[in-house]
Amino acid sequence: MAGRAIYEISGKDREHFLQGLVSNDLRKLKDGAVYAALLTPQGKYLADFFLIPWGESILLDVDRDLAEATIKRLSMYKLRADATISPSPLHVFRGTGTPPEGAFADPRSPAMGWRLYGDVEGDDGTDWDALRVAHLVPASGIELTPDSYILEMGFERLNGVDFRKGCYVGQEVTARMKHKTELRKGLVQVSVSAPVPVGTEIVSVGSSGPKTVGTLYTQAGGTGLAYLRLDRIDGELQAQTAAIRVI
Questions:
Q1: Is the dihedral of CA 105, 95, 1, 194 positive or negative?
Q2: For residues 47 and 30, what is the distance between their CA atoms, to the nearest angstrom?
Q3: Which pTM does this prediction carry?
């Protein structure tokens, strides 16, 4: 499991402050954990994270490698808001099956289990890569990169974006992609005949000659997550010596 960093956001403006920045509606915190992203003004991905209702505060649970840049970006927008962002001593323990008392359901999908915040960091031994591949869930720093658009990465299906909440950073581009264009690129499940390195280019070998159409990422049990330019596929797909087929 990738390392996580936990921060506590406190102050009377904490919810209002975040509401104008992230892709999801903070009013959903009354029902449990919220999955959301922070975007550039051009609508591109910067970070994804979980927001957790925690008494008079909100916990922010983010990939450790993205934590410093994420907190710096959030702090840049804070201005005069009564909101304080500070590191939390809490850790997250993840699992599947029956959740322990106090755990929060993963808002992306029931299949992704639960998250428990406390003194213990780790997981219950679940094969998270296999679970992500099976349920088409991208991960920070692997499928989700600074070139990503969240709709191409399935955030609507994963309950990570709200189209009725109003303005947030990157909202205009995201809404335009939703309502005015047909997505020609996206994250899909593929079968993979043999393991290849994460990040291997996928080539379409068709009548017009070979052309790069995407990238293969996480793989498990002969299945993988691939980011593909769907309108450019012409013929058989290959990633190095592996045969690829969209499922």
A1: negative
A2: 23
A3: 0.95
